[in-house]
Amino acid sequence: MSRTPSRQDFDTYMIPTYAPQDAIIVRGKGSRVWDQDDNEYVDFAGGIAVNALGHAHPELLEALKTQADKVWHVSNVFTNEPALKLARALVDLTFADKVFLCQSGTEANEAAFKLARRYAHDRFGEDKYGIVSFRQSFHGRSFFTVSVGGQEKYSNGFGPKPAGIEHGVFNDLESARALINDKTCAVVVEPVQGEGGVRPATQAFLEGLRQLCDEHDALLIFDEVQCGMGRTGDLYAYMQYDVVPDILTSAKAIGGGFPLAAMLTTSDVAEAFQPGVHGSTYGGNPLAAAVGYAAVSCIATPEVLEGVAERSRLFREHLERLNQQYDIFSDVRGAGLLLGAELKGALKGRARDVMKAAMDQQLMMLVAGTDVLRFAPSLIIEPKDIEDGMMRLEKAIKTLL
């Protein structure tokens, strides 16, 4: 039992739902991590927008260690202090009146979609259950959430899909207008599509969706699992657009690396969920909630939020320099520290090749589809780490040209 695990163990013992890189990361500090051979990597991936405060942040570590000496789990038969503190903080910081705590973006979105349907059922009758989503969206991996998501490659092959789900064209208000009617219970949208290519919504699109939902007594759901919790430079992206949803889902960065998620809504909508209607065994777990409260408290500060814009500028400047030299990007887009660089020319369709080459240069990267390099680093990444990482990215690109 004391044998050191190897990458081969993944292929031997794990169900192959992933194809991880060869390196096994064993420790991290800030925006640097080290593998089993003590090779150092710059982290531009942030655990897929999860490690908003980097690795081993002292305030998160202290929160975890302190809570670990108290109580780890009590189930939803009881409540606990960290969960109550976190819920109150989220209410105080947002439009919401009520919070449902869970473990993942999938769970948060599953709860949101169920809540929307239950609310409509109770208020308007059983025929009002339609959900309008958008192509290339991503809302989770449960069968319900993956069906609401707008990428059939994730939902096909599992039998009949849940009824009443339609997909419009992102940023095309007329496409949405054609689908939304009095049988629609909810419209769900990512203010910045993440997996779908790092595409920000336009102001007119989100404002139009809000108006259409109001006209048809439908709820507007913002999926801010990836773009929320400081990543755009505001605590949540809806604040930048000044468009307030009825339900908001939050995960990833909200736990700073500890599995945690939340669904936020108003008191009126929340009334549709009564005891026994929905739940999560680990939801509001004291360890997760304690770390989450520390993470939210750190992120929701002017120092962190205002620093996102400067770091975003540095990333864009480096990407522009690379593009001027190698002419490889057709577009650099996104918001704050959720950025996408769309590849063209010799690298078009080769995003995963770039990611692999970057790993060879000791840089951790993400992609969004076959053509887009995705950047979702720590919100407090040091400028020196950005510079070093971009030097490594340039070396990786040169090996492919």
From TrEMBL:
Which Gene Ontology terms of cellular component type are present? cytoplasm
Q: Name one GO molecular function term.
A: pyridoxal phosphate binding
Please share the entry's free-text remark on the cofactor. Binds 1 pyridoxal phosphate per subunit.
Catalysed reaction(s)? N(2)-acetyl-L-ornithine + 2-oxoglutarate = N-acetyl-L-glutamate 5-semialdehyde + L-glutamate
Q: Where are the transmembrane segments?
A: none
Question: A Pfam family name for this chain?
Answer: Aminotran_3
Q: What is its EC number?
A: 2.6.1.11
Pathway, per Swiss-Prot/TrEMBL? Amino-acid biosynthesis; L-arginine biosynthesis; N(2)-acetyl-L-ornithine from L-glutamate: step 4/4
**For the modification N6-(pyridoxal phosphate)lysine, which residues carry it?**
K252
Gene Ontology biological-process annotations:
L-arginine biosynthetic process
User: Miscellaneous notes for this chain?
Assistant: May also have succinyldiaminopimelate aminotransferase activity, thus carrying out the corresponding step in lysine biosynthesis.
Q: What is this protein called?
A: Acetylornithine aminotransferase
Give the organism, scientific name: Zymobacter palmae
